[in-house]
Specification:
Layout lengths: L1 H12 L1 H20 L10 H30 L3 H28 L3 E3 L4 H33 L2 H4 L4 H29 L2 E3 L7 H4 L6
Antiparallel strand pairs: 1-2
Helix pairs in contact: 1-2, 1-5, 2-4, 2-5, 3-4, 3-7, 5-7
């Protein structure tokens, strides 16, 4: 209890500093995973596919929680708004854990499509990734303020302003992530990216949807 109170006190006193620390940890985990710095257990192709589907479900649930949270705050249901947004944040943490395991222990996918659709897919994927990266400190800052202040105290902070930016960036990123997932896994098909592409010759149809 004392530890929790001390953390809340630090968050109240220096919300930007706490936001920066948490955000940097998140960035370090992602870049460290892509750079091969952190060791991950090797996972099977089937597990990669299951994780891809599970990530899409989690992201859809997170987007639904965000939409619900926006509705609750607009109808002055503060307690439900708080619960919805914390649920969305918890789901994103779960997403991050599954995504890092999929990338670190498995492989990434490349879509099997050409022409305008391919470039549209790349554009949506690029915006999704960019917004995912940009929204991290904004989302974390909104959550830090929300957890360290009472509803009445939040009116004197940047929580509402930061929250609107977080919802826009985070929500669009999730939406585009879901769209690109459907295109990749259920419309056009895929092959493993990079060195993992060698697996196609071995496992072939088992990797297709």
């Amino acid at each position: 209890m004392a530890v929790a109170d001390r953390l809340q006190s630090q968050a109240r006193a220096s919300p930007r500093r706490v936001t920066a620390v948490i955000s940097l940890v998140g960035y370090a985990l992602v870049f460290g995973t892509f750079g091969g710095v952190f060791p991950f257990p090797s996972i099977s192709n089937e597990t990669v596919i299951v994780l891809s589907d599970a990530i899409a479900v989690v992201n859809t649930a997170a987007l639904s929680a965000i939409v619900a949270g926006v509705y609750f705050i607009r109808t002055d249901q503060v307690r439900r708004h708080r619960g919805a947004m914390l649920t969305a944040f918890a789901l994103i943490v779960l997403f991050l854990a599954m995504y890092l395991l999929k990338v670190g222990g498995g492989f990434e996918k490349s879509i099997l499509v050409e022409g305008p659709v391919y470039y549209a897919y790349l554009a949506m994927l690029a915006v999704h990734i960019l917004l995912s990266a940009v929204s991290v400190p904004v989302v974390v800052h909104a959550v830090v303020l929300g957890l360290s202040h009472s509803p009445s105290e939040l009116r004197g902070t940047a929580h509402a302003r930061v929250g609107r930016v977080a919802v826009a960036a985070w929500g669009l990123s999730l939406f585009l992530g879901i769209v690109t997932y459907v295109m990749l896994n259920h419309v056009y098909g895929w092959v493993p990216r990079g060195e993992a592409a060698l697996l196609v010759a071995v496992v072939g149809p088992t990797l297709r949807r």
